[in-house]
Amino acid sequence: MLGFQKKSLNLLKLSVEKTETGLMQLNLGDHEVKIRQEPENIPPNQSKLSKLTQIKTNSLESPAENNIFVAIASQEGFKYINNVKHQLHSKMEDFSVPALTMSESCLSFKTSFDNNHVFILADGHGGADAGEFMANRISDLIKIFINNENNVEWNLNLQQDSLKMKLGLEEIFNKVDKEYCEKKILEYTAFKNMLENKDIKESVNKPVDDGCTLIANILINSIHGKWLVNANVGDSRTIVSQLKLKSKTLSSPLSSAHLNLDSTQPQIESITKKKTNLLQKMHRSLSEPILSKNGLNGSNGILFQSVDHNMSHVVKLNFINDNGGKFLSPFANFIDPNLIPNSSSIYSPFQTSRVYRPASDQVKQIGVSHKRTLNLSSTMGDLLFKIEPAVLCSKPDISIVKLDSNEKTLLVAATDGIWDHLRVRDSKSQNEQVFQFLNDEINGFFHSKVYNEDLLEEKFLNLAKKMVIRENSQTKLFDSRFCIRFDDAMVQLILI
């Protein structure tokens, strides 16, 4: 009855290359930087010019290496009718693991990265049940999967381990999606039977056909390294970036005491001055963000960004069309599928379209309404679109990101209630804008007089709160001047 079709996915390939002895090579996008490392112990008879002050580029105070700081914040959706504010849904439809309680809209905590961690973010539509069910069930299964019975350490640099991770997560998503849809079939079947039973007089509520987007961000810590594994279905989004923390002070990288120079040697002094200037330049370049034609760190500081499964995702649009789905314009007209572009474009006529599933014998037999439409190109749940042949798929994009233990990494996961209200519209600019805002805020805190690690958790929570307040925002991220409807919003900030 249900169809769960497979799609090919590309894993993010990671590799580490060794260089010749004494040479450290860094590959940063279009840039290749090579730095010769001098031996630490220099014989006394060696040239005085070789004995230079060691530069410590990471001198800024920062959280302990194995600590993870987490902040989660949410805001229930609302709308204005005749200038009167109304709640958008009867219940918050965004759901997080770790979960927020009914009485709280935010939480923060500090934990150790000595173990593996799982963070889930689900954005429900049509109701709140799917998001809560999917998030809890998938979280439980992922924890069992990554913390395997044999305690085998993951090494995601190896193709066999990365493939095992990919296939394992795909199986979990498919399993849970199938469980939920089968649960809904039973509800619809029971509802039909009750309607046909004339002895039942009490009113019976019709089942709700709902679904959700879902992001799983998994932090893996093993003897082989640390990784982020991202699994994504839908249009909630994850971005990962390295924080660019500016040094508080720049100590002099070179002094005459270290060089022990004789003032009667003007030629040596001249050479030394040139070498000092060069070293100072190196110090500045290593202490500040590396710039390229694309911006910070090769891509405006962004190490990874998930791809939204929205109505501009060409591969998924073709999948929908091939399996009998239709595309409705905002004016309720069908859009010619031959107009599907060859590449994603925010100017495509499909960008504002919705997916429609015509009634079939299977749909009628189950009793689910075929009048629902969606503006997503993949989802979890949504029984109507999963009845065979499935119009939408639930196979996640899987990406693996190697984490640098010497760098502070910031992860942002947010539902579309945040992304849809940003001032800029394209995802690349949105990601850069959000990262720049958070990077500047964290830098400002590190440089403030009140900085200490104990206050970092509180600061992180305040940042998360700022991210979900879109109307009359304290930031320049949002523009709500002409907006009368705000969807539920939730964000997870994780500092690694």
Automatic annotation (TrEMBL):
<dbReference type="InterPro" id="IPR015655">
    <property type="entry name" value="PP2C"/>
</dbReference>
<protein>
    <recommendedName>
        <fullName>PPM-type phosphatase domain-containing protein</fullName>
    </recommendedName>
</protein>
<dbReference type="InterPro" id="IPR001932">
    <property type="entry name" value="PPM-type_phosphatase-like_dom"/>
</dbReference>
<dbReference type="Pfam" id="PF00481">
    <property type="entry name" value="PP2C"/>
</dbReference>
<dbReference type="GO" id="GO:0004722">
    <property type="term" value="F:protein serine/threonine phosphatase activity"/>
</dbReference>
<feature type="domain" description="PPM-type phosphatase">
    <location>
        <begin position="69"/>
        <end position="496"/>
    </location>
</feature>
<dbReference type="InterPro" id="IPR036457">
    <property type="entry name" value="PPM-type-like_dom_sf"/>
</dbReference>
